[in-house]
UniProtKB/TrEMBL annotation:
CDD domains named in the record: FDH_like
Residue ranges of domain Alcohol dehydrogenase-like N-terminal in the record: 26-130
Sorted UniProt keywords: Metal-binding, Oxidoreductase, Zinc
Cofactors demanded by this protein: Zn(2+)
PROSITE patterns to which the protein is assigned, alphabetical: ADH_ZINC (PS00059)
Entry protein name: Alcohol dehydrogenase catalytic domain-containing protein
Oxidoreductase is among the record's keywords: yes
Family stated for the protein in its record: Belongs to the zinc-containing alcohol dehydrogenase family.
One Pfam family linked to the record: ADH_N
Amino acid sequence: MLAYTYREPGKFVLEEKKKPELQNLQDAIVKVTLASICSSDIHIKHGAVPRAVPGITIGHEMVGIVEKVGSEVTSVKPGDRVTVNVETFCGECFFCENGYVNNCTDENGGWALGCRIDGGQAEYVRVPYADQGLNRIADSVTNEEALFVGDVLATGFWAAKISEIGHQDTVVILGGGPTGICTLLCVMLKNPKSIILCEVDPDRIAFVKEHYPDVLVVNPKEVDVENFVREHSEHGGADRVLEVAGSPQTFELAWKLARPNAIVTVVALYEEAQSLPLPRMYGKNLIFKTGGVDGCDCDEILRLIEEKKIDTTPLITHEFPLQEIEKAYEILENRKEKVIKVAIRCI
């Protein structure tokens, strides 16, 4: 089968690999119909994910059709159309039982697919712990509608969930890329008083303004965003700040924009260490929530999609066959052609 493979930092190659087989009784083999490229894949390419294993197939954002299941798999069967969760989790350890599936203690727990074991930018993928890692797609939901459920949309849903957003809150989202927009969609479900999105890319700004006109959009390169947020909030700053961009500037901006006693949720993946200037922050009494997504709400997300309460299809601005995945990466990595997200047809 064709598979896009991580060879070494800076080098991905499209090559022929052996089709995956069941290795455990809880595995499933999924024929990948549609995949996508995540910014995390680009971080791997840049060598910014030390745990990524050279030789693995890249990709953790996909939908497909179950082809084969192990004897202990009960939630899906061959022929089911499914989303694939970015995380592998056993469902039985302390962290899984408490909903912290990103911290599953299994040897392949957490982000494994496309990082430590073969992922899904390929024709087939093996999914461990299939009962937890696969979610069936309703007949009324298209592959395109479900494509981002297992990763970028689950991240946005989790970020909104842990931010404890109330109806009277002013919420700031830093970053208008794919994860930022998915976070925006999930924040909108909470019906806060106002939402401010900060972005510097003119194409992304135009996209948000076109599709979500009720959202206030501000460019920190053109406007004093600290004053802007103060003017559009009631208590000297945002009640909730969600940092989704992942730069040193946005990391600092996150705590600066927050009012005293606010919640700052950091879900961005950084390529370098960040620091908290605690003497300058003293007295703000901020609550920080950080880390990777706990992707255990995929059934609820799929239900919201089925009910037409979430629609991420506008994010798919480009589509390529697997044979042209290198072109897809080149466009996405360099933000060409007003790209937001790329879909990869694998069959």
